[in-house]
Amino acid sequence: MRTSWVIFALAVLAAGAQPCGALSGGAPDAQATDSQATAADPHTDPRLALLKLLPAGSKLEDLKPSPIAGIYQFTQGADVSYLTADGKYFLDGNVYDMATRANLTEAIRARARVAMIDAVPESQMVIFSPKNPLHTITVFTDVDCQYCRKLHSEIAEINKLGIRVRYLFFPRTGPNTESWRKAEVVWCSADRNEAFTRAKAGAELDMNKTCGATPVAREYALGQSIGVRGTPAIVTDGGDFINGYMPPRELLQTLKQLQAAARTSGEGAERTARQAP
Could you tell me if 26 and 159 lie in one domain? Predict the structure, then answer.
């Protein structure tokens, strides 16, 4: 999603579009933009002009002043980009506070991840938890992913270390594929945890099992909004992103470090772990 937005933005700006008018041929989100015009005065709110340069479905509340004068922050899901107030320049990257060395952009992403995941009822997750957890992680997983299987093969040790694991489905191959169907079969099983563990071990599943609507599509879309590109993708309870597999004790140490950093700074700092080879 982030890549497509960057391409879109650069294409628009390269075409010389001006923030005060619609895109050539009419902006695809012109109706949404016009409906918001009654709520803001174009002479006092420059965001209305900038909104015409943004992808369809963008809202005024997606644009906020950034810490840098003359630059607006544009947020969609956990993607954060920047636009100059005159609409001439688009910036894709992180903003740091030089006094504290804090990554302000990553702090915004972390809050967005937490908010989006918190909106998912735990009844729509597959959860493996110790009796008294010390940490909670949310893992976007693919039934057939090698490193996802390795992580789940160690779930007993992970739980023993005090880590509660909430799984969300993210079949990397997308809709109408075998991995997607396996995720739905697991969800439709009477004992989801048992079926999940069997699937991760490569056991045969009853691929004819159905149960109506499943959360697989919603969780896959959520993963895309959060920025998941591969699995396992781990989000901590503070919104930090760990990209890839970690051995249980290394995972625990990372969670402790992130927790300490959050207590020190008041925000989740950028912590992107190495992707497993």
Answer: no
Whether pLDDT at 38 is above 60: no
Query: Which tokens sit at 207?
Result: 């691929």
Q: Is 263 a catalytic residue?
A: no
Of 29, 79, 142, 144, which one is the catalytic site residue? 142
DSSP for 144-182 reads T-HHHHHHHHTHHHHHHTTEEEEEEE--TT-TTSHHHHH
Catalytic-role residue among 29, 109, 113, 148: 148
pLDDT of 260 over the 50 cut: yes
Active-site hit among 109, 113, 144, 145 = 145
50 pLDDT exceeds 70? yes
How far, CA to CA in Å, does 180 sit from each of 116, 174, 209, 252? 22, 6, 13, 30
How many domains does the structure of the chain reveal?
2
How much is the average pLDDT of 217-230?
95
Lowest mean pLDDT among 58-62, 134-138, 241-245: 58-62
Region for 16 from its dihedrals, namely left if φ exceeds 0, alpha if ψ lies in -120 to 50, beta otherwise: left
- 145 noted as active-site residue: yes
Mean pLDDT along residues 126-147: 97
Q: Say if 109 falls within a structural domain.
A: no
Fill in the amino acid letter for 180. W
At 209 the pLDDT is 86
User: What CATH number has the domain bearing residue 162?
Assistant: 3.40.30.10
Q: Based on the residue annotation, tell me whether 148 is a catalytic residue of this protein.
A: yes
Does 172 qualify as catalytic in the annotation?
A: yes
Active-site residue identified among 109, 172, 240, 271:
172
pTM: 0.77
User: Within this chain, do residues 81 and 134 fall inside the same structural domain, yes or no?
Assistant: no
